[in-house]
Write a structure and sequence with these properties.
Layout (H helix, E strand, L loop, with lengths): L4 H7 L6 H20 L6 E7 L5 E3 L24 E3 L1 H6 L7 E5 L3 H8 L1 H4 L7 E4 L3 H11 L6 E7 L8 H9 L3 E7 L1 H8 L8 H11 L4 H5 E7 L5 E7 L2 H13 L4 E2 L4 E4 L5 E9 L5 H14 L2
Length: about 300
């Protein structure tokens, strides 16, 4: 039933450092609370994991390099060698169990590894749905295809490497009014890096930010011009860029525009140099279930080490 540690490390998805463990602990505890809360409810419960990787996460070897982290060197954290469970395995280990598990991964090798979870968890195999697809396309199709969301509930985990999640995908999730969303917003590894201090942003970068934030208004929100008095007594204009805190608050407001409730204080996930990489955000789609879901999520965001 279980594979040897060496084989797992070969298949493992090397990604992240201590901040990765933090996000998985928060997710795992929420999933357990979620299924317990809905245990006696009539809803069919699903766990949906986009960018699901391999289901495994191998700690990054010292001195090694990994193609997934080359664009974002801050992600190449050193940590003790060993094998760590990924989000997919955390979901499959959750008790009480979900009725359905949907794992989405575009990379074919990782997709093949995810399919192997059916052999590792044979009692759940019939309820594991592994899809090799672009996450944005697959999620929008899933949200639109499953029309009767009134009898269904789900937790979705969006864990991109960078800025792959598009705003229309987030809107599709919110429209179901049935999905609790955990989302990593690429604060330091994506948005803050594209916002050049001068305000002169290439068109390609602007388009990427438009897709992520779902609007072009972000430029006015992230930049302002201030007058600064020079030593000669004259005023000189300078461009002031938004702080990471201001960028995060802007995105939380964007989530509030489409979801029933959103955690006001997302968890800041930092690297070993204390630089912010991601915001772990939480949003609730269903108004009736928002209060207990928010209470649990906000507690976990605040207290889980």
């Amino acid at each position: 039933m279980t594979k040897g540690i060496d084989q797992r490390q070969e298949q493992g998805h090397r990604f992240g450092g201590d901040w990765t463990s933090t996000k998985l602990r928060i997710l795992s505890e929420y999933l357990s609370s979620y299924t317990k809360a809905l245990k006696n409810q009539p809803f069919r419960k699903a766990y949906i994991d986009a960018f699901a990787g391999t289901g495994y996460r191998a700690a990054k070897p010292r001195g090694g390099s990994d193609p997934d982290t080359l664009l974002f060197p801050d992600l190449a954290e050193q940590e003790p060698q060993g094998f760590l469970d990924g989000s997919a395995r955390h979901a499959l280990q959750t008790e009480p169990r979900f009725d359905r598990y949907i794992f989405i991964e575009r990379d074919r090798e990782r997709y093949a590894c995810l399919k192997g979870l059916k052999q590792e968890f044979p009692a759940l195999a019939d309820d594991i749905d592994v899809r090799c697809a672009d996450a944005n396309d697959a999620i929008r199709e899933l949200c639109a295809k499953d029309k009767d969301w009134r009898s269904r509930r789900a937790v979705m985990f969006l864990d991109p490497y960078g800025m792959q999640v598009e705003w229309p995908t987030i809107e599709a999730i919110a429209r179901t009014q049935a999905i609790d969303l955990w989302l990593l917003f690429p604060l330091g590894v994506g948005v803050n890096r594209l916002l050049k201090r001068s305000g002169e942003i290439p068109d390609e970068w602007r388009h990427r930010l438009d897709l992520l934030l779902g609007t072009t208004d972000w430029f006015e929100a992230f930049y302002r011009v201030e007058a600064e008095r020079t030593l000669q007594g004259t005023d000189e204009e300078r461009v002031v860029k938004a702080t990471p805190t201001e960028i995060g608050a802007y995105f939380i407001d964007r989530l509030k525009s489409v979801f029933a409730a959103v955690a006001e204080r997302p968890r800041i996930l930092r690297n070993s140099r204390n630089c912010p990489l991601y915001l772990l955000c939480f949003a609730v789609g269903n108004k009736a279930g928002a209060r207990p879901a928010m209470r649990i999520a906000e507690y976990l965001l605040r207290t889980v080490p």
